Amino acid sequence: VQLVESGGGLVQPGGSLRLSCAASGFTFSNYVMDWYRQAPGKEREWVAGVSTGGGSTYYVDSVKGRFTISRDNAKNTAYLQMNSLKPEDTAVYYCCRRGPVQYWGQGTQVTVSS
Fold first, then answer.
1. What is the dihedral of CA 80, 81, 87, 91, to 10 degrees?
2. Which of 4, 46, 56, 108 could form a disulfide with 8 if both were Cys (CB 3.0 to 4.6 A apart)?
3. What is the pLDDT of residues 59-80, one digit of tens each?
4. Burial class (CB in 10 A: 0-12, 13-18, 19+), 55
């Protein structure tokens, strides 16, 4: 199982970023996928989840209306579109394969600062 995140970077408040999570080594379409984040000095926080077919999505309250999780099962990739970014969104973002055993990517840094 391999999960590789990309798309992080430095963005000004109010800006946007699109994170990608490329999956390999398993049948991607069989698993719910989640995005988590971890800010400095804080515990890792669940941010969003998407069902196996992509029809159902779930968000932590702090990102509802700003972030959109999606997936493309043909490309074995999950996405997190982040709009109206705030400084408090600064964190390392991780994708995760949900299941009895969780698998994590290496993370991608998102920094929101002017």
1. 20
2. 108
3. 999 999 999 999 999 999 999 9
4. exposed
CA distances from 93 to 30, 35, 74 (A): 22, 7, 23
The residue type found at 33 is: M
The 3-class SS string of 72-113 reads: ECCCCEEEEEECCCCHHHCEEEEEEECCCCCEECCCEEEEEC
The answer to whether the beta carbons of residues 50 and 78 sit under 8 Å apart is: yes
Q: Are 76 and 87 in contact (CB under 8 A)?
A: no
The answer to whether 54 and 70 have CB atoms below 8 angstroms apart is yes
Q: Which stretch of DSSP H or E encloses residue 64?
A: none
Structure tokens at 2: 């391999």
Q: How is residue 27 written in tokens?
A: 């049948």
Average pLDDT, the chain: 97
